[in-house]
Design goal:
three-stranded antiparallel beta sheet; alpha/beta; single chain
């Protein structure tokens, strides 16, 4: 059982991402209780973490989620919200296929609308079929981070190292000027060099990606044509706005709207679900084992103290994900 409120939602998201990257036993169950004041805080979740039904079904079979919005959100467009399918209609579906970044908007009483909004690089030139100035349809997040960091470091060193080296052997010509000119001027040059290096690294990464894609298509096209198969498109972590427009929206039910959740009810509901999962995972010959319940929470100190008080009768201990400064 995982609680996340305010800034404590972030460590909860990181924990779920870590669990999603591992192989969990079939009886494992995770309940993510998200408590936020505004919809903007809930947009930090990944798309597969959003609930699509009243029981909290998400995009993962072992994960369920409760979304509690403590402040009342008014629907901006009632007509648009009425077109969304009711969250009750998703009960027959064990999980949804909604993924990636999104934006939330009010869609009636006790429901939100999640619209796909992947993280995109708007107006970024790159190498494509139309030339250097053609907009890229996607980038890789990891390649972007590595290339910009390495490029910025090399660009900064390329400009500042001659200045430092020249001043080590003999006084530099600008050393007699005021510090606002000599120090800030060198810092400004280093900053410009870092930007230029990061930009050059991105263009080099685009060129390498375009070259690899061209060579791969050239070598694989005859074989794919002979086998009658299609070459799958590479996965893009960052896609364009046109690609995001083709994806559908998701109706997100709220467990509570304009009120705080009942911690005792959350704990009792999760304990019953864990017991049912343990009983279903046990075979007919062996008896069902008592489920092991772990509780973690991140958020304000008052919330953590309230959860501890709620867990005290059951003998459970709370793992704190956030600490007061």
């Amino acid at each position: 059982l995982l609680f996340g409120a305010g800034s404590g939602v972030t460590p909860g998201i990181a924990l779920i991402r870590m669990l999603a990257s591992r192989l969990l036993p079939p009886t494992a169950r995770v309940r993510f209780v998200v408590i936020v004041r505004t919809m903007a805080l809930a947009e930090a979740l990944d798309g597969y973490m959003l609930p699509c039904s009243a029981d909290g079904a998400t995009g993962l079979p072992w994960l369920t989620c409760e979304l509690h919005l403590t402040r009342t959100a008014e629907a901006d467009d009632a007509e648009q919200g009425s077109r969304l399918p009711s969250p009750q209609a998703h009960r027959a579906t064990p999980q949804h296929a909604f993924r990636g970044g999104f934006r939330l908007s009010a869609a009636g009483e006790g429901a939100l609308k999640a619209t796909p909004a992947p993280y995109g690089l708007v107006g970024t030139p790159g190498f494509g079929t139309a030339g250097l100035l053609a907009p890229r349809t996607g980038r890789s997040v990891v390649a972007n981070e590595l290339s910009t960091m390495v490029g910025a470091f090399l660009g900064f060193v390329a400009l500042t190292w001659p200045l430092v080296g020249a001043a080590a052997e003999a006084p530099a010509a600008w050393s007699y000027y005021p510090t606002s000119i000599s120090g800030m001027g060198a810092l400004l040059l280093g900053w410009v060099g870092a930007l230029a290096g990061a930009r050059a690294a991105l263009l080099g990464c685009d060129a390498a990606s375009c070259l690899c894609a061209t060579l791969s298509a050239t070598w694989s096209a005859p074989r794919a044509a002979a086998q009658g198969a299609l070459i799958p498109a590479p996965h893009l972590d960052i896609c364009s706005s046109s690609e995001a427009a083709g994806a559908g929206s998701l109706a997100v039910p709220l467990s509570s709207h304009g009120a705080r959740p009942c911690l005792k009810g959350c704990l009792a509901a999760f304990a019953s679900r864990a017991a049912a999962a343990a009983q279903g995972g046990a075979g007919e010959a062996e008896p069902a084992k008592e489920p092991r319940v772990l509780v973690a929470a991140g958020g304000p100190t008052l919330l953590l103290e309230s959860i501890k008080k709620t867990l005290r009768p059951s003998g459970l201990h709370l793992l704190e994900l956030t600490f007061p400064m």
